[in-house]
Amino acid sequence: MLVTTLLLFTQLLASTTKNGHLETASVLADRVLEQASLNPASSSPAYPTVFQGEDEIMVEGEEKPTRFLYQLEATQVGDVSSGGERWFLEVQVSWWSNDVKAASRAGYGNLSTRQSRLVYVKW
How buried is 29 (Cβ within 10 angstroms: 0-12 exposed, 13-18 middle, 19+ buried)? Predict the structure, then answer.
């Protein structure tokens, strides 16, 4: 009985920890997308194909900041018109990993989140 209780408590703690990191990563992903959509280049192409970065953020319940990695990928959609360009922006944010694309840990599953946005850049 005690072993079962400890196992359930451990799983609950892992789930709570992952949820805190996932929420923080989602906020960071939204912030990266917002900054990218508000600050395109002043001439074509509006965005580099890939942009990577990192940020250390305090997560509730943690004693020290967690390192979050992000990768923003920009894909031009359709033809360039004289009025502007359409871009599909996608950002992936991961934590507890040195590789944005391969973030997972036994007992926690995937340790990343992905968000996207379609942006029209007017010239």
Answer: buried
Cα distance between the two ends of the chain: 67
Locate 26 and state its tokens. Answer: 């989602």
Cα 43 to Cα 46, 67, 75, 80: the distances in Å are 6, 33, 16, 12
Matching residue, tokens 């390192």: 67
Residue 86: name the closest of 57, 115, 44, 27 by CA.
Answer: 44
Of the candidates 34, 31, 47, the residue with the CA atom closest to the CA atom of residue 84: 47
Each residue of 33-85: pLDDT tens digit?
Answer: 999 999 998 888 889 889 999 999 998 888 899 999 999 999 999 887 778 89
Amino acid found at 53: G
Q: CA–CA separation, 104 vs 101, rounded Å? A: 9
Helix (H) and strand (E) counts in the chain: 1, 6
29: enclosing H helix or E strand: helix 2-38
CA distance 68 to 16: 18
